Amino acid sequence: MLYPQRNVCRDLVDCSGLWRFRADPDGVGFTEGWSTGFESDMVCAVPGSWNEQLQEYGLMNYVGGAWYQMDIFVPVHFAGRTVRLRVGSADFQAKVWVNGTLVAENDILSLPFEAMVEDHIAPGNKARIVIWVSNALWPDAITPSVTLDTYVREERIRDEQFPATRPDFFPFGGIQRPVLLEAMNAVHIDDLTVTTEIDGTTGVVSAEAAVSAPDGTLFRVSLPGGEVAETAVWSGNAMVTLRIGNCRFWSMTDPHLHALKAELWQASLLADQYELNIGVREVKVVGKRLYLNGEPVFLRGFGKHEDFPVHGRAVNQPLMVKDFGLMKWIGANSFRTSHYPYAEDILDYADRTGVLVISELPSVNLDFRIVSDATLDHHRRTLDRQIARDKNHPSVIMWSVANEPGYLGEAEYKSDKTHAYWKAVCDHTRALDVTRPITMANVGRIGHDDPAFHYVDVISINRYYGWYDMPGQLDRAGARLKAELDAIAADHDKPIMVLEFGADTVAGLHSTTDQLFTEEYQADFIETYCRIIEAHPNAIGTHVWNFADFRTSQHHRRVVLNLKGVFTRTRDPKRAAFKLREMWAVPYRDPAAGEGK
Ligand code: BDP
User: Fold this and answer.
1) What is the pLDDT of residue 595?
2) What value does the CA radius of gyration of the chain take, rounded to a whole number of Å?
3) What is the mean pLDDT of residues 82-98?
4) Count of domains observed in the chain
5) Average of pLDDT values for 376-392?
6) Host domain of residue 478
7) Which of 113, 195, 112 is nearest to 394 (CA)?
């Protein structure tokens, strides 16, 4: 899935801006024909979440459908060309009409979708784009819905969150990434898959294309160093391999990108061109270690969120640049896109800056009492889309296929059905991408005999001893954490990653003794975990929960925000940030490395 671009063969129109907006809690828009256009005084900025933006219009906690409309001028030179409409994300479900014709429907969370629209537009005129978006989830989604009834039925009324959501982050709604119109020739590259290998000092780059082009069209790939390879298209496909001598490999310290140029030629006519920044690197799990270009790596970093005042979950480039600056300042080398795929801008920037990314699917708190074939189908289709979108990023080193399934500790989780589910999900992931390891974030309530551990390459656990359990008692918490790491290591010869651990902290609250919510406690909590994890021979990383405070649904255990950030929501450092900076200035030392000396 290629991000639209502007070059000698392609052009694009960015439809960002103020779209006409209308909430539709009762779904009347469908019967009243809003898909051809509707009246409203209200606007919503795209990209943007509607919640904080339209708080004063009653939209803060709104869960349901809403309509967006924009009349966009289609340039004259789009005439006679193939035109692709691409919605970067519209959470969580959407339908799109162009000049009254339904062109796309989407139920894949937080990922792009597209439609070819040249038959529905008249270049030189405006085109009306209408998008219906709903931030309501459904029971079979890979992040299942909950309602007030769920809490009542389960006799957990004190767990009710408003808006009702199981995940511990706000269900922001809206068109949160750009809407783009891209023009290209009828003969064009639909997709490119680039994989890289290291052969001594040589970089081996394979570029495989899916194309709309007749057999015999020339597919040509070149690199800035002068390497070129070409082949004839056959049956909509083409593949070439290039070798880069004395290659500068992509790494954390030298994130070198090569601007790969893929082209389609019909005789002497250039029909299409696409430029892709690639990094030559190899990721592998061998035994209990993770390797980048043959060197073991220890991941130090965070689970994050796309979350900021007013913008909500929308792509926010100044914030992105700031966050990467803070990660560099603190000494982090990696983050996880908890708990959904992030905007492409963020992955591009990670490619440029050498930050490693665990790319997580938008699957949170799967409930194995209600998981169905439809859930597995949704999981597989999401994998298809996410891997199609993110496969060419050198920064993406691992897929996390879910966060905290079995969250309620339901008995159904430890069953053959769950084994079959994770086997199917991991098999599907490997069928799509053999070049990256797979992980999944296990929840404390399921403990360390999680069926998924048998199918993933890296075992990941989220743990909160010293917070939800054993509050204020870091000695007990640390002993428990160590015992659990040992128990997992005894059962599985695989790397272990601690993907979440953290403590809510009110910036400015202090205490001389261990006290929840204080800055000192958060710093001590994180230090205790980091020391235990780094000393464990199976551990390959610590990701603190969370990088910054973030908005949640309303619940008595959250003071507007989840306060586990080491930075506040507006990015001021808490004491733990300085503690991490001090600890992460000291290089990781592999406890197994000294053995036998
Ligand atoms: C974990 C979840 C994460 C929460 C965190 C917490 O994966 O989304 O925000 O706990 O409780 O269970 O802070």
Assistant:
1) 53
2) 24
3) 97
4) 3
5) 98
6) 298-584
7) 195
Residues with CB under 6 A from ligand 1: 168, 339, 403-404, 462, 500, 545, 562, 564
Q: Say whether both 410 and 539 belong to one domain.
A: yes
pLDDT in tens, 1-19: 999 999 999 999 999 999 9
Q: Are strands 334-336 and 299-303 parallel, antiparallel or unpaired?
A: parallel
Residue by residue, what is the 3-state secondary structure of 195-254?
EEEEECCEEEEEEEEEEECCCCCEEEEECCCCCEEEEECECCEEEEEEEECCCCCECCCC
342 C-alpha to ligand 1 centroid (Å): 18
Cα of 336 from ligand 1 centre, angstroms: 13
Pick from 247, 278, 309: which residue ends a domain?
A: 278
Who's near 373: CB < 8 A, 6+ residues apart?
none
Give the model's pLDDT for residue 594.
61
In tens, the pLDDT along 230-268 reads 999 999 999 999 999 999 999 999 999 999 999 999 999
Give the pLDDT of residue 597: 37
Residues with a catalytic annotation lie at 404, 500
How far apart CA 323 and CA 573 sit, in angstroms, is 12
Assess whether 443 and 558 both reside in one domain: yes
Cis before residue 462, ω within 30 degrees of 0? no
For residue 156, the model assigns a pLDDT of 87
- Judgement on whether residues 395 and 413 belong to the same structural domain of the protein: yes
Those residues with Cβ within 8 angstroms of residue 542's Cβ, 6 or more apart along the chain or in another chain: 299, 300, 301, 498, 501, 529, 530, 533, 534
- Mean pLDDT computed over every residue of the chain: 97
On the CB side of 97, how many CA atoms lie within 13 Å of its CA?
A: 18
The label of the residue with tokens 């160590």 reads 482
221/334 same-domain check: no
Q: The tokens of 300 are what? A: 């130090």
Residue-wise pLDDT for 408-466, tens only, equals: 899 999 999 999 999 999 999 999 999 999 999 999 999 999 999 999 999 999 999 99
Residue to mutate (ligand 1; options 338, 562, 569; most atoms within 8 A of CB): 562
CA-to-CA separations, 65 to 16, 144, 425, 488, in angstroms, rounded: 20, 17, 30, 44
CA distance 354 to 216: 39
Give all strands (DSSP E) within 381-424, no chain letters: 396-403
> Residue 300 pLDDT > 70, yes or no?
yes
Centre of ligand 1 to C-alpha 555, Å, is: 14
